[in-house]
Design a protein that fits this description.
alpha+beta, seven-stranded antiparallel sheet, elongated
């Protein structure tokens, strides 16, 4: 790996992910089916639980797939001096962020947890179909060099 990888800022905007969409919808659907078919409680409780699962599915879809909620990350930049900047869905300016150690990197999935300078935290889920291979490789290398 050449040193040139670290000379330029790394900016990326994850695109729509069919894998993440299928996972979110599939997981919530399976949970609803199991509640309805196998949970030995009255029907009223089952309906309440399925309603909660549906609310979770809609929230997760809007946060991580549509990126429409105020703390949805729509763009990330890692500067040359390893400072993170994130752009949130309801803001026009970049916010300084700190990458938390709870972030995860592997071949198929990158989960970046950030603490925002404006307060609060936000998570960016990047499946392998949301960014091109070269960008994912550069991002993984830069994060590993930083010590995650």
């Amino acid at each position: 790996m050449s040193y040139d990888t670290y000379k330029a800022p790394l900016t990326f905007k994850p695109k729509f992910s069919l894998q993440l969409t299928a996972f979110v919808i599939g997981l919530h659907s399976i949970a609803s089916i199991f509640v309805l078919l196998f949970l030995p409680v009255p029907l009223v409780y089952k309906i309440c639980l399925v309603s909660i699962i549906c609310i979770s599915a809609v929230y997760t879809y809007r946060l991580h797939i549509q990126k429409k909620l105020k703390n949805s990350i729509v763009q990330v930049m890692l500067s040359v001096d390893n400072q993170w900047y994130v752009t949130l869905a309801k803001q026009t300016e970049r916010v300084i962020a700190t990458l938390l150690p709870s972030s995860m990197i592997n071949r198929h999935l990158i989960i970046l947890n950030f603490k925002l300078s404006s307060g609060g935290s936000s998570t960016l889920i990047i499946p392998r179909d949301a960014v091109d291979k070269e960008l994912a490789r550069k991002l993984s290398a830069r994060i590993r060099v930083m010590g995650l």
